[in-house]
Every structure is written in C-alpha cells, then in structure tokens.
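Handout, section B. The chain below has 572 residues.
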Amino acid sequence: MKSFKIKSLMALALAGMLVLSGCGGGQEAAAPEQAAEKADLTTQTVDIHKAEDPSKNPQQALDRKDTIVVGMTEFSGKFMEQFRQSSYDMYVNQMIFEQLVEVDDEGKPVDEGIATWTVENDNKYIFKLKDGIKFSDGTDVKAEDVEFSYLLLADPNYDGDSDMSKYGFVGFDDYKNGSATSIEGIKVIDDKTIEFTLEEPNAEVIYFFTGGIVPKAYYGANYTKGDLSSVKALLTKPMGSGPYKMVEYKEGQSVTFAANEHYWKGQPAVKNVIFTVTAKSTAMQSFLGGQTDVEMMDVSIENVEQLKGAGFVDLHRFPTNGYGYLGMNNALPKFSDKRVRQALAYALNRKDVVEAIYGPFGNVLNVPQSRVAWSYSEEGINEYGYDMEKAAALLDEAGWTMGDDGFRYKDGEKFEIFFTGMADHPVLDIMLPVMIESYKQLGIDLKVEYVDFPTLTEKTNNFSAEMWFMAWGLTPDPGDSSNVYKTGGPQNKYNYGSTKVDELFVQGSKETDFEKRKAIYAEIYKVLNDELPCIIVYQRSDMWAANSRLEGFHVTPYKEFTKDLWKVTIKE
C-alpha cells in the first residue's frame, strides 16, 4: 500500500474526529499540523496546568455545593476487587474498599493502608490492623475478614482475574484442590493480627496485599466453599471500609456514593460523588458545560488547547502506566502461526496511526510494559516498522497464498478476520480504516462488528472474539503481567502459551536481586516481542481534566485519582 494512501485515510478519519472534539465548548480546535513539544513518556512527573480564569466556571457546576460528578466509560458491574474486570469497576471499588497495603505516588508499598506489617525470614508477613477500622455498617474490621477476603481467591470455583496460586502460600493447594477447610499459611492470631506464610520468598507478594478487604458477615452469610453464587449476587451491592459507600447503581447510567460516616481517616470533605456514564463523543461537551466535574479526556493537541482555553480547567497529564493493543485469539488456526501475527504487525503503520491519534502525546510501543516502569527494556526488541513486502513474505511462508480475487487462501479457506470494537472510539476511528485498507492490500478481508464495552469484555473473556482493540492498565510490579501472558492465566485473553515465558515469570517472582530480576523481565519481553501473542500499539499520556472548584485533586501514573478523592474540597 502506498504511503500517501495511508496518510489520506488518516487525514479523513482525523477530520471527523476534530468535528466531534470541537462541539463542546465553542473553542477553535488547533490544526493537526501544529508543532508541539514531544511528551516525555519515561518520567513519572505529572504536568499540571492550573486554570487561568476560574471565573469562567459554568453555572451548572457552581450550583453543586456538596457533590462531585465524574464522567466515565460504562461499568461492568463487578464491584468487588476479587472479581473486577475493568478499570472503571476498579475506580468504583477504590471508593468502597480499603487494603492492607497502599502504594505511594511512585508505586512503592507504604504503610498507609488499614494495617502495619512486619516480615520474618523473607517469607512470613505479619499484619496488625490499625485502631478504629470499621466497615460502613459500623462493625469492626477483623482479621477473620482479611482471611475471608483471601479465601475467596482460593475457592475451587474462583473464576476472577486474580491468581493467588503463584505466590506459594503454604497449604494453598490443599485448600483449593483438597478437603482442607483453611489455608495453613494464613493464620488468624487474634482479632487484629493475621499471618501469611509462603513456601519461599516471593518478590511480588507485597503487592498482592493491596487487594480490597470485604466483611465476612456480609459476603459470607450464605457462602460455602465451592459455591460463590451468594458472593457474586452482591457484586452490585458492595460494602467495605472505604471513604464512600454505594447508595445507588443504575446499570449503563451511573453509580452514586455517599460519605462513609465510619471512615477511619475522617469524614470525606465532599458528601456525595456520582460516577456517570459519558460517551467519548460527548465527554468534552459535558465537562465544558458543567455537567461533570472530572473527566479522563483523550489526549491530543486539540483537546489540550481547548481545555486550557476554557479557563476554569485544571489539567493533569502524565505518562500512562499501560498500553493499547490489538488482541488476537491465538488458538484460531489463522493466528496460531507467529509468522501471521508478525505479518499483521508489519502491515500496520503504527507510527503514523499513533501520530495521527495522539500527536506528541503518544509513542509506538513494542513490549507489554510502559516506559515509566523500572523493568522496561528495548534490548533485542524488533520494532516491526511498516513493511508490506516483509508482511507478504511472512504470509507466503505461512502458507497463505494470494488468489485470483486478491485475497489469500490456505487449505481452501479465505483469510478473513472478524474484528470486534466499540463505535465512536477515538483510536478505532483512526486505526480501523488504515487496518482495513492495509490488510486488504495484503490479501486479508477485515470485517468489523461494533459492540458496547460490556459486550466486548464478555466476548474477550469467553474467547468468542477473533481480533479486538483494548488497553491494559499496569500495576507497579511487572510480575502481574504473568496473569496476562502465562499459559492459562486468568487474564490471558489470547489463548497464548509458552513454556519459556511461564518459566521466566516464575524466576522473576522468586528473584529478589533487583538487577537480576530486571534482566529476567527483559528476556520475557524479548520472547513476547518475537512470538507476538498480541500487537502492542502505543503508550500514550493520560489526561484528567478537573474543574478548578475542586481543591486537592491528585493523580499520578501509579496512584488513581480515587485514592485521594475523599480529601478533595469544593471551593466556594
């Protein structure tokens, strides 16, 4: 495919996107060719632009004296950390549940959770609950609640995204796969003390203790080992010890919170919070009109300039601790050969696509790790630059030969890809036209179906999607990616398996020497970059827009805005 044809397709798609982004506040969008300094995506620094003229605040926002409204993409309704499957559900959960261990702005574990801890012999973690920790119904948080929260993850029929097995808790297998009624390595000492013992030291386990603690009396009232149905029945009626409690959930519309009067750190400054579902195409309009106070905005030169020009907006921009990717079901014969997956990467001009979408605020990424992470490595990494001849040669080698009709065939099967994506998505609006045309030139017929976010999540979870676009948010520890890439991992949506990758992730979890551990992950990235279970597309900047009425709004690449939202005040 000719380069000018790609440019033309992206120009048309970009023009359509600019029309949408400019409809909210009457600000003139900057030209896409406008020069801008390239964002540094390797730093954890948050670039904050304070409002230049708060007097321009819309009246609808000023009229809200005791409520913060946050715009969000649709929820999946899994409001419990043990079962959540999206970042949007995570935001809800962080309002409701507290953890044993918290992380600071740089992603380091700190003693700001509901317990203090000590470590003995590198394999025994002793947690002591702090005074005054209560659930939102006024009952005390006890060590038995902590134990119950982790026993759920070890249930024989647990089907959530967490993988407790990889940490090596003593007696885990006897409980999950045997008749044991408790886990030997989890021992309640008294109401405030609990011990966790590992078979051997594990470098990742401290982050495992950042999961939400739930009340046993509430979630365990009708629970029996092997039957999680009673627990799942409460997913949309959560209760925890966090700063807020849920008072209403309207599926596909909103989640409403009220301050938890029993919160151990003190009363939240703002009594009410609403997370409301806003479409990507109308988020700017809702925010600039005052319907919402906080929005995660798509980062682009146009959006940055429009928000700055509004006068009343505080902008928080920083490198995303995550990446956007094209997923493929590797179990399908058409995707089972890595040469095919590599060909699809070569045939997609990611550089021009990412430039068209994010301008200076995004870069092509080639490994499943963000540049802000200590484990990031480009050593021995193939960049898969745009190369149609290379892509065609790889498909030829894989046995997909060009037919007279301009499409490739193998064993009588036409090479068709059924792509599942969300409509009105700023990335797909640009990337899909390029993919369709490029893959057509390569001899592949790309067909597209559009679904809503919950349906997309469901289809990727049950492996009924062939190819799709989504994004992964990462945690501070790179070992969490084992859930995504190890054989049979709970978040492995690709049906990918590699004995070498599995072994390397185990090595990474056991190695406590920092430099040696970093080298192990560098090797993992090389293998994944070669075998390409999915096509990593980009790392971009995140950009949160907050109404300047909100004082104390705080967010970093490693700390979500929800963690400190209870401290935010509304300026009169």
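Note. The longest strand covers residues 534-547. Compare this with the example in section A.
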